[in-house]
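pls design
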């Protein structure tokens, strides 16, 4: 069956039951031995690969404040913004104000959650996301003082001053997503657990869709779960210097698995140079699957060159990464167009059950130009009207339009 036929099939028909034919030997967890062997095989077949020219519009090197590596940072005082008692009191007043309006949570915005003095600080921090290092941590929200609903209002309210666009997390218009080990409670759902976000497993380097990611830590794990960030520009510089042929591979189209959605796959690059910004945008599971969600049969496999590039991005991102430790009550904000992120495996115990709540945001005034192949996705992401926005207060797995988990 051809890939074209897959596009028109129903969800049930396309749900994967067999391996994708012709897929290279590569899985979700990068294997450095296999990566080195693949590189050696490809260079033996074509020793001139490292001498290839960079594609048009891709410079030999990039620089700027968002091009950094882990060792450039001394300690967390460089990126942690500590909220003062007066600012926390201002947040409480904004919470009371929003509650007094008696509006659905989708109406949380800069006007309904007013922060007379903190707003200007949050704007400066938003500028750091788009024009600076690309990340910061807000510390700390006194989690235990509030109900889940109050926390959702505070979190979305504060975040609306960083970026007023709130992205939908799934096909049911959820705008809050929970990152938590849900294997004991949700593994029976259609599609099962197809994303490391719902396990204690390591999440390898990737980006989310959209401009900005916010992660509120409601509870931390007993051990592990370190969060890692890495600069897309730094990774780009290394690949451009050593393997310019793979820059060409990255900026060309890749087949992204949509795991049973219709169409079964879409094609787009993983690398863009838009308006002077290097953007890497991909999730490894879209090319190799994860756990129950193996790569769909009857869609095009990735190529050996793409498999090599995937591992190279991961290993350079890991090499040049910065570790961030979440504290309970922290909110981590990340520019997901300029930075990749990952998380170590972790263990929970009775009192420590790692639980993050995620928002996807965009600040229209500060935003980078969205690369054309991403425009449609971005438009859908940030177009949920306030009355349709859903704020799941308890953990659930994101859903596709077909009802399966994703
Ligand atoms: Fe992520």
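designed seq:
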């Amino acid at each position: 069956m051809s890939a074209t036929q897959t596009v028109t099939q129903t969800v049930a028909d396309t749900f994967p039951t067999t391996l994708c034919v012709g897929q290279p030997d590569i899985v979700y967890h990068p294997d450095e031995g296999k990566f080195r062997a693949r590189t050696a095989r490809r260079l033996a077949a074509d020793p001139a690969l490292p001498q290839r020219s960079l594609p048009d519009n891709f410079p030999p090197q990039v620089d700027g404040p968002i091009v950094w590596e882990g060792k450039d940072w001394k300690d967390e005082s460089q990126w942690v913004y500590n909220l003062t008692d007066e600012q926390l009191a201002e947040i409480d007043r904004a919470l009371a104000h929003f509650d007094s309006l008696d509006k659905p949570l989708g109406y949380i915005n800069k006007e309904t959650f007013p922060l007379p003095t903190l707003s200007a600080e949050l704007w400066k921090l938003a500028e750091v996301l788009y024009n600076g290092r690309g990340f910061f941590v807000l510390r700390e929200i006194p989690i235990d003082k509030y109900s889940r609903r109050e926390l959702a209002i505070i979190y979305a309210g504060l975040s609306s001053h960083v970026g007023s666009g709130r992205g939908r997390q799934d096909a049911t218009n959820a705008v809050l997503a929970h990152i938590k080990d849900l294997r004991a409670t949700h593994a029976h759902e259609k599609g099962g657990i197809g994303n490391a976000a719902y396990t204690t497993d390591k999440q390898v380097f990737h980006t989310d869709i959209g401009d900005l990611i916010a992660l509120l830590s409601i509870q931390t794990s007993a051990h592990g779960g370190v969060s890692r960030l890495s600069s897309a520009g730094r990774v780009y510089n290394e690949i451009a210097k050593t393997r310019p042929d793979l820059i060409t591979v990255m900026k060309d189209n890749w087949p992204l698995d949509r795991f049973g959605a219709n169409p079964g796959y879409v094609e787009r690059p993983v690398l863009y140079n838009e308006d002077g910004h290097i953007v890497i945008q991909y999730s490894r599971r879209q090319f190799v699957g994860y756990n129950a969600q193996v790569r769909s049969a009857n869609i095009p496999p990735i190529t050996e060159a793409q498999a090599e590039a995937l591992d190279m991005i991961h290993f350079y991102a890991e090499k040049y990464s910065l570790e961030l430790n979440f504290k309970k009550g922290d909110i981590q904000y990340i520019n997901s167009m300029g930075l990749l992120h990952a998380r170590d495996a972790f263990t929970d115990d009775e009192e420590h059950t790692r639980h993050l709540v995620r928002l996807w945001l965009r600040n229209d005034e500060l935003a980078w130009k969205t690369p054309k192949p991403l425009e449609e996705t971005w438009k859908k992401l940030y177009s949920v009207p306030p009355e349709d926005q859903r704020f799941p207060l308890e953990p659930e797995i994101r859903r596709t339009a077909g009802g399966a988990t994703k």
